[in-house]
Design a protein that fits this description.
Layout (H helix, E strand, L loop, with lengths): L5 E2 L5 H26 L3 H29 L1 E5 L3 E6 L2 E7 L5 E6 L10 E6 L9 E4 L7 H13 L7 H13 L2
Protein name: DUF304 domain-containing protein
Keywords: Membrane, Transmembrane, Transmembrane helix
Organism: metagenome
Length: about 180
């Protein structure tokens, strides 16, 4: 999207895993549906019900989650962080309006499943709540962390407490 800044590179790992899971589970759903076609009466009804539930839980839900992850885009500019979902600007927080920055690590899962998250709080230009930028959605947090590093240097009160400063410095050092 024009004017929103640099897009953080998307992380396709979870989308591919969900797509493969949906494909993998589509096989037993089709087998159950084929078996239901050969049945009659209550056995057919039960088989169709089972096929429908399996299709919903094991095929449709993973596809919807994959679509949700793939449609979320994060942009960083000199002025703001923006979240675009489905082509529509959902959240935007100006750096000058930011009131708090939190960095969290939820375990060490390696490169396959990194768990770094950055929470940005303050009055939003667009949307509401707190902006979450997670390695679930993006491949690299470096552009955001570089911009936040400049903001934190100018306004150290954005990191509330020594623990927050330590987490932030660790994220800056280890950012991909």
């Amino acid at each position: 999207m024009d004017g929103l800044g640099t897009e953080l590179p998307q992380r396709p790992t979870y989308v591919w895993v969900l797509l493969l899971a949906a494909l993998f589970f589509a096989v037993p759903v089709v087998r159950t549906a084929v078996k239901a076609m050969g049945e009659s009466g209550s056995a057919a009804l039960g088989a169709w019900a089972m096929a429908a539930v399996m299709a919903l839980l094991f095929v449709v839900v993973p596809l919807l989650i994959a679509r949700s992850i793939a449609s979320r885009h994060t942009y960083v500019s000199e002025e703001a962080v923006s979240i675009v979902t489905g082509g529509e600007l959902r959240q935007q927080l100006a750096f000058e309006d930011m009131t708090e920055v939190k960095v969290r690590f939820t375990g060490n899962s390696g490169n396959l499943m990194p768990r770094e998250k950055i929470f940005l709080s303050g009055p939003m230009r667009t949307g509401r709540g707190t902006i979450l930028v997670s390695r679930l959605y993006v491949d690299s947090l470096q552009p955001l962390l570089r911009r936040l590093q400049a903001e934190v240097a100018a306004r150290p009160e954005l990191l509330q407490g020594e623990l927050e400063r330590d987490y932030f410095q660790q994220a800056v050092r280890s950012a991909r």
